[in-house]
Specification:
The complex is a heterodimer of chains A (about 180) and B (about 425). Chain A has about 180 residues and is α+β, with helices and mostly antiparallel strands. Chain A folds into two domains: about 80 residues, NADH-quinone oxidoreductase subunit E (Arc Repressor Mutant, subunit A), CATH 1.10.10.1590; about 80 residues, Glutaredoxin. Helix content of chain A is about 40%, strand content about 10%. Chain A is built from seven helices and four strands; from the N terminus they run ααααβααβββα. A four-stranded mixed β-sheet of chain A has the order 2-1-3-4, with helices on one face. In chain A, helix 1 runs antiparallel to helix 2 and helix 3 crosses helix 4. The longest helix of chain A has 12 residues. The model of chain B has no long low-confidence stretch (mean pLDDT about 95). In chain B, a hairpin with a 2-residue loop joins strand 5 and strand 6. The N and C termini of chain B lie far apart (about 55 Å). Chain B is of the alpha/beta class. A four-stranded parallel β-sheet of chain B has the order 3-2-1-4, with helices on both faces. A four-stranded mixed β-sheet of chain B has the order 8-7-10-9, with no helix packed on it. Chain B has a two-stranded antiparallel sheet with strand order 5-6. Classes of the chains: A alpha+beta (about 180), B alpha/beta (about 425). At the A-B interface, helix 2, helix 4, helix 5 and helix 6 of A face strand 3, strand 7, strand 10 and helix 13 of B.
């Protein structure tokens, strides 16, 4: 079972550390208050609040789960259930540049796997891992809805379309 | 058939997302007109236009609106489905990023027709971050000009829209999955009935409509039902966006009257197949649609013709595969997608999709068994129709059709432990860095 540990939700480091407490900075707090006004129930604000938390901290830590639960009157287990269901909530810290390569069919036949393999080799990481300097994380993602300009690589929030290995290298240099 | 610019009339204009450009092109005229009509008249107009939902199922839109009960105990909701996640589909993204006001106008009219309460949501997939920012800006412009908010244009109708971002789950494109997600839950589809038109989001009657469907509404209000029916054939009416991707020379979004043939679209408008290779298969309606072989593509791209041919128009995401693609590899990639996106609620889908992916993978790795092709068909029978939503049915579409139409290629993988000569696999079977 050892190989299951990195993603094991019950691993000891997945419980909130009682000595650390997450708290939104003032600006995020104001945005959170605005989000609450847009939904008829507190629970409905969960997804946008998690997006906001990820914007602030870069990932959803066990402390964040606890904190968001307190904000919205939800059990941490309910929040955690939502965090793990959706792909975009990072359950561990990711690099400064989150390289998300779409490999679904239209991208695949336009050689998306070449880009994906190249990135893993060049950065010497396995899929889902982050480079030691904390700059890059490479993941394979499902269809990004940009099949007409395949292959597409999403870097953080931005789409980079009509990619190939050379363009990917050029992009990495820009990100340096 | 010549391409048209009806839904895409604005997208080539510079600064097309600005409200001024939209108003110059006659924008928000339909709202002015609609708010002077009775809600039932608008529903009847949409019914007369024979508009069918563009999200995949092709359900008549006007009929959907008329299912909403009057005087329901809880408020009625309009939700816009912008969770465009079907592989091969990218039309809604174009409309959102280039012409957000057309969508907003369509939503105002639809909300008025169904008697929506003053709040509505555009559920946009989380990855469309740019699209969400475009929408936010457009919504603010519309509020500033009085098209959204209290007492719109003095009609007494209050309405506002919030952009609700998804967080990466294909299943949230299913309408009850979307409803669950808007409520802040995991996007696991609900048991139907009750249908959303009776009990949907927050317990109220709910109408969920695709982006492209809603953008058709202002055009119908402005030009009338007869004009709309002038595009396409009876029961399959209106302008339609087709997304073409895969091995074609000129992929992209093309607009035609509903019913251009696949052959004409690929060869006359998309420039044919990449490097002039031969066509092997076409997936006509996004990853869920059963694939068609080259001798089956002289067929109109509309709901009824494709259904008759055993496939479906779905979201009109046309994926073209040329002769160099290994069909088992292509189907494996789609199976992997469905296995990843199954929400895990119903056992046949949760287990079956993963099992299908494993079998296709072992065929690719040369460990396939002679009975695997039949095993895939047998499994498909036990997944299809056995789950709460259509994801299970979607997952078996490419599997069944490819086994039936390319059985020799499956057998070749078993006998020779390799892809058919002249075809290729795109992924590497060894890990690029090496597992450690």
């Amino acid at each position: 079972m050892a190989d299951l540990r990195p993603d094991n939700p019950y691993a000891p480091d997945r419980f909130p550390d009682p000595n650390k407490r997450a708290e939104f900075p003032a600006e995020a707090k104001a945005r959170f208050e605005y989000i609450l006004t847009r939904y008829p129930t507190k629970e409905a604000a969960l997804l946008p609040t998690l997006h906001l938390a990820q914007e602030v901290w870069g990932w959803i830590s066990p402390e964040t789960v606890q904190y968001v639960g307190e904000l919205l009157d939800l059990a941490p287990s309910t929040v955690f259930g939502v965090v793990t269901f959706y792909n975009m909530y990072n359950q561990k810290p990711v690099g400064k540049y989150h390289l998300q390569v779409c490999t679904n069919l239209s991208c695949m036949v336009n050689r998306a796997y070449d880009i994906y393999d190249h990135l893993c080799e060049k950065l010497q990481i396995n899929p889902g891992e982050t480079t030691k300097d904390g700059r890059y994380t490479v993941v394979e993602v499902e269809c990004l809805g940009s099949c007409g300009t395949a292959p597409v690589v999403q870097v953080n929030n931005d789409y980079h379309e009509n990619m190939d290995v050379e363009r990917m290298n050029a992009l990495l240099e820009q990100l340096e | 058939m010549q391409p048209i610019k009806v839904l895409t009339a604005n997208i080539d204009k510079p600064n097309s997302t600005s409200i001024d450009i939209y108003l110059d092109g006659g924008g928000y005229k339909a709202v002015e007109k609609a708010l002077k009509m009775k809600p039932e008249e608008i529903t009847q107009l949409v019914k007369d236009s024979e508009l069918r939902g563009r999200g995949g199922a092709g359900f008549p839109t006007g009929m959907k609106w008329s299912f909403v009960p009057k005087n329901a105990p809880k408020p009625t909701w309009l939700l816009c489905n912008a969770d465009e996640s079907e592989p091969g589909t990218f039309k809604d993204r174009l409309l959102i990023e280039k012409d957000p006001h057309l969508l907003i106008e369509g939503m105002i009219i639809a909300a008025y027709a169904i008697g929506s309460n003053p709040m509505s949501y555009i559920y946009i997939r989380g990855e469309f971050y740019y699209g969400a920012t475009v929408l936010e800006k457009a919504l603010q412009e519309a509020r500033d000009r009085g098209y959204l908010g209290k007492n719109i244009l003095g009609s007494g109708f209050d309405f506002d829209i919030t952009v609700a971002r998804g967080a990466g789950a294909y299943i949230c494109g299913e309408e009850t999955g979307l409803i669950e997600s808007v409520e802040g839950h995991r996007g696991q589809p609900r048991v139907k009935p009750p249908f959303p038109a009776v009990i949907g989001v927050f317990g109220g009657p709910t109408v969920v409509q695709n982006v492209e469907t809603l953008t058709c509404v202002p055009l119908i209000v402005n030009n009338g039902a007869e004009w709309f029916k002038g595009f396409g054939t009876p029961k399959n009416t209106g302008p339609k966006l087709y997304c073409v991707s895969g091995n074609v020379k000129k992929p992209g979004v093309y607009e035609f009257p509903m019913g251009i043939t696949i052959k004409e679209l690929i060869y006359d408008h998309c420039g044919g197949i990449t490097e002039d290779r031969k066509l092997k298969a076409v997936i006509p309606g996004g990853a869920s649609a059963p694939m068609l072989t080259p001798d089956e593509i002289d067929i109109p791209l509309n709901f009824d013709a494709l259904m008759k041919a055993g496939s479906m128009l779905g979201s009109a995401g046309i994926i073209v595969l040329d002769e160099s693609v290994c069909i088992v590899d292509a189907v494996w990639r789609l199976a992997k997608f469905f296995a990843h996106e199954s929400c895990g609620q119903c056992t046949p889908c949760r287990e079956g999709t993963n099992w299908m992916e494993s079998i296709l993978d072992r065929l690719e790795r040369g460990n396939g068994r002679r009975q695997d092709a039949d095993l895939l068909l047998d499994m498909s029978e036990n997944i299809g129709g056995k789950s709460l939503c259509a994801l299970g049915d979607a997952a078996i579409g490419p599997v069944i059709s490819s086994v039936r139409k390319f059985r020799d290629e499956y057998l070749h993988h078993v006998e020779h432990k390799a892809c058919l000569p002249g075809t290729r696999r795109y992924r590497r079977l060894d890990a690029p860095v090496g597992a450690h």
